[in-house]
Design goal:
The complex is a heterodimer of chains A (257) and B (551).
Chain A (H helix, E strand, L loop, with lengths): L4 H17 L2 H21 L14 H31 L1 H6 L5 H29 L7 H30 L7 H11 L13 H9 L1 H15 L3 H28 L3
Chain B lengths: L4 E4 L6 E2 L10 E5 L5 E5 L7 E2 L2 E2 L4 E2 L5 E4 L2 E7 L14 E7 L5 E6 L6 E3 L3 E5 L7 E2 L11 E6 L2 E6 L7 E2 L2 E2 L3 E4 L4 E4 L2 E6 L23 E10 L2 E11 L4 E5 L6 H8 L7 E6 L2 E2 L4 H7 E4 L11 H11 L4 H14 L15 H12 L6 E5 L7 H18 L2 E6 L2 H7 L2 E6 L2 E6 L1 H8 L3 E6 L5 H11 E5 L5 E5 L6 H10 L4 E7 L3 H9 L13 E4 L12
Parallel strand pairs in B: 1-2, 13-14, 24-29, 24-30, 27-28, 28-29
Antiparallel strand pairs in B: 1-3, 3-4, 4-7, 5-6, 5-8, 8-9, 9-10, 11-12, 11-21, 13-15, 15-16, 16-19, 17-18, 17-20, 20-21, 22-23, 22-25, 25-26, 30-31, 32-34, 32-35, 33-34, 35-36
Helix pairs in contact in B: 3-4, 8-11
């Protein structure tokens, strides 16, 4: 009897999806909050587009990219809570006693979260377009935007997983929400970096990796196909995913013979 | 056909059909006047069909009729054509049995049933226990009571070892737990050799004798000098122990004694700092995957996902353990039924009681037919009814499936009732190890405990009891003494108290308990010992108040 790797993977991914969707407290805030922010910030910041050098005259288009990053960041809580709860309740030990490997376990968890992330991103995009936003890169750009959001979801999920293996419980992962939100506000979310007047803010925004995730999304929405912005954003997301996943798996493996 | 023929799945049938669709005593064929055969359904679950019609009563058969029970089809043939009412001895009808040709067939080529063939229509259990096996191999001492199971999965066949002592060998390799079989595969259980023939596949003829198979795999646990250090703290201090196949070993000790740490090392969840441990024949330090494939584990806290229901847990666990797809749902259903959770299986486990969670946890630990089962404080926090139900299930596993059980507990009663042998661990060291009876026999002396009616009599009562034994702490806040050898008459003590004019509200005689053993070995009482651990012989004193509950 040989374990079927694909079947195991899909069941674990489905389990993450199922358990996450059955916890409205985990899903609803991370889904609704970016929409709320989009509505509030866009309504209040419309005048910003008149600033000289502002890349677009549609503030909702400008903000949509950032809100999609914020939505993707919810993956950190979802993936981290699942893994952290599994550690805290001993469910991870049950999984560890099966032939499943640590890497497959973490990857399956991320896959489940990624499905939610992509669906969320598609809804944000649809709402944004309905509210007057546009995608400069066209339909192909819209699809690419969802792909970029998928990479971001994986990156945030991997970071959440890493936090979970160190925290060892689901509850402590909730603190990540505040950290990500703070980082997001300290990025180029509200204003293009070249238009930030305060030097200290500009410096933080430049070194803040979330700026490049936001700008990758924004490039497809506002500038069309910007290879540099996309390479930076996607490359950063992939690098974060790989590093965080490797550290997570290494940490998990240490607890098993 | 000259006599009544009973067809069924049970051992008492004249024609045994190994098919789960067939009842124990399914149908009978009986010759009747005129040379005809009468078929009758014997109250089977799935019915008996003649030419496609379900029987509602006895029915005479005609030549050419087709009788079907489960997957077995029988054709009726007259000896000389259709039965007639001609003079002379009636021509006898014959019932020729054949199987629907799509079933896999077990061909017994050596051993007790050599030369016979058995189609598999559901599950066939091979073993030496007539009450538990479909194919009984009772002449072979190497066969376990329930040795192996052959199960239909789609058009294929799966064989799984049921925790047998000597293993199930497939094509010369000992099974870890189960494998899907192909035509020409050779399965060996003890001296019995079975070749497999699947429908539509060419039979591969084997040559030469069956090779003898050697394997280190067994159901035992061997631990030598096992140590676990957490920084400067040595939690487990070089323990040695051996658990025999099919034994329930109770690992008894207070919180923090090292029980769970030992279980985590033996189940590969935590690497040992030093020492060697082999579980089911595999080294826990070097053969983690093999160990994990051989064991089932229910850890201290029921390791469940509160957001999934029992079916979803079963689906996940059976998939992760690599059960073939066709076998997952039946196995899950079987285990949920066994632990009494079928009715609650659609509810998320977050709403389960502690006992239900424990039962599901146990069921999940069993999905892959483990040979060794680890239970880490399985009844902690359970009500007495749930505790008893779990004990019964564990006892059944050992009795019927030959499983070895390593059970940690802080409950004296649990160790006493469940364990064949008990190891008492304290501060990471095993301080005593033997059967519960032998351990208690080491202490050997009962304890008398007297509850004074007046507190002022406390010292006087202590003085009297001191004449009969060594004063010890009482379990119920009374004055207690472990009686000297030779003091075996409670009346002696009562008379002595009465002669001193001392009034008492209650007196109890405690048989030696494992707590007494723990006390004798460590100098202190075992935590959590209260709650009915004592096998107390209570003597009510007329006019006395009820005994005071223990702390």
């Amino acid at each position: 009897m040989n374990p079927s790797g694909g079947g195991q993977f899909m069941r674990l991914a489905r389990r993450t999806l199922t358990r996450t969707l059955r916890q409205p407290a985990l899903v609803v805030p991370s889904f609704v909050f970016p929409l709320f922010m989009l509505a509030v910030v866009s309504a209040g910041g419309a005048d910003v587009t008149s600033i000289k050098g502002f890349p677009t005259d549609s503030y909702i288009t400008f903000m949509l990219g950032a809100m999609m990053v914020q939505g993707a960041s919810g993956a950190a809580t979802m993936a981290g809570t699942t893994l952290g709860t599994d550690i805290g309740t001993g469910f991870l030990s049950r999984l560890a006693l099966t032939p499943i490997t640590a890497s497959k376990l973490v990857a399956a968890n991320l896959t489940g979260v990624a499905v939610i992330g992509v669906v969320q991103a598609a809804i944000y995009l649809a709402v944004g377009l309905a509210a007057g936003a546009s995608v400069e890169a066209g339909i192909a750009g819209a699809v690419a935007l969802l792909g970029v959001c998928l990479l971001m979801t994986l990156a945030f999920g991997a970071i959440g997983s890493l936090a979970a293996v160190f925290a060892g419980s689901g509850e402590q992962i909730q603190g990540l929400v505040a950290v990500v939100l703070a980082l997001l506000f300290m990025s180029s979310m509200l204003m293009p970096r070249n238009l930030i007047e305060e030097d200290w803010f500009k410096t933080i925004a430049t070194y803040n990796p979330l700026s490049y995730l936001v700008e990758a999304n924004r490039s497809l929405l506002i500038s069309g196909w910007d290879g540099e912005a996309l390479a930076l954003g996607c490359g950063l997301a992939v690098a974060l995913t790989v590093v965080a996943l490797a550290a997570t798996v290494a940490r998990l493996r240490r607890s098993m013979v | 056909m000259t006599a009544r023929t009973l067809i069924g799945r049970g051992a008492g049938a004249d024609v045994t059909v190994a098919d789960t669709e067939v009842s124990t005593s399914h149908a009978s064929f009986e010759p009747a006047d005129g040379g005809v055969v009468v078929v009758q359904d014997l109250g089977s679950t799935n019915g008996t069909f003649v030419n496609g019609q379900r029987l509602t009563g006895p029915q005479e058969l005609q030549s050419g009729d087709r009788v079907q029970i489960g997957a077995t089809v029988m054709e009726v043939r007259g000896a000389d054509g259709p039965p007639t009412a001609s003079a002379g001895p009636p021509a006898q009808q014959a019932v020729r049995t054949r199987q629907i040709p799509s079933l896999p067939v077990m061909v017994f080529v050596a051993g007790q049933h050599a030369g016979t063939e058995m189609p598999v229509g559901g599950q066939v259990v091979v073993g030496r226990d007539p009450g538990a096996a479909d194919v009984i191999l009772d002449r072979d001492p190497d066969i376990s009571r329930r040795h192996a199971a052959f199960s239909l999965a789609g058009a294929g066949l799966i064989v799984q070892d049921l925790g047998s002592t000597n293993g199930t060998i497939v094509n010369g390799h000992r099974l870890d737990y189960a494998v899907t079989l192909s035509t020409g595969d050779r399965v060996q259980v003890g001296a019995t050799v079975i070749d497999i023939r699947l429908p539509g596949e060419t039979v591969f003829e084997r040559e030469g004798p069956v090779a003898a198979v050697a394997s280190d795999a067994t159901n035992d646990i061997v631990v030598e000098g096992l140590v676990k250090d957490f920084g400067q703290h040595r939690a487990v201090q070089g323990i040695d122990l051996y658990v025999s196949p099919g034994e329930i070993y109770g690992f008894l000790g207070p919180n923090g004694a090292g029980k769970s740490t030992t279980v985590h090392m033996l189940t590969t969840l935590m690497p040992p700092s030093h020492g060697v441990a082999r579980v089911a024949g595999y080294d826990v330090g070097k053969q983690g995957p093999e160990v994990r494939a051989s064991i089932g584990v229910a850890l201290q806290a029921a390791a469940l996902d509160a957001n999934l229901n029992a079916w979803e847990h079963m689906d996940l666990q059976t998939a992760l353990q690599g059960l073939p797809k066709a076998q997952r749902k039946p196995r899950g259903a079987e285990l949920l039924e066994r632990v009494g959770l079928t009715d609650a299986a659609d509810r998320v486990v977050g709403g389960y009681s502690g006992g239900m969670k424990r039962r599901l946890d146990l069921a999940l630990a069993l999905v892959h037919w483990p040979r060794v089962l680890f239970l880490d404080e399985p009844t902690t926090g359970l009500d007495p009814q749930s505790r008893t139900a779990l004990w019964e299930e564990v006892a059944r596993l050992v009795k019927q499936e030959g499983m070895t059980v390593f059970l940690t507990t802080q409950y004296l009663e649990e160790a006493d009732i469940m364990a064949d042998r008990v190891g008492i661990i304290d501060s990471g060291e095993i301080v005593a190890e033997d059967t519960p009876a032998a351990l208690k026999a080491q202490i050997g002396r009962p304890t008398i405990e007297v509850l004074p009616l007046e507190n002022a009599d406390w010292e006087a009562i202590s003085e009297v009891l001191g004449r009969f034994g060594e004063l010890v702490s009482g379990a119920h806040r009374g004055v207690a003494a472990r009686l000297h050898p030779g003091v075996d008459d409670l009346a002696q003590v009562i008379r002595a108290l009465d002669s001193e004019g001392l009034r008492i509200s209650n007196v109890q005689l405690h048989a030696p308990t494992l707590d007494d053993v723990f006390l004798a070995k460590t100098g202190r009482s075992l935590e959590g010992a209260a709650g009915g651990a004592e096998a107390a012989a209570e003597v009510g004193v007329p006019g006395a108040t009820p005994p005071v509950a223990g702390p």
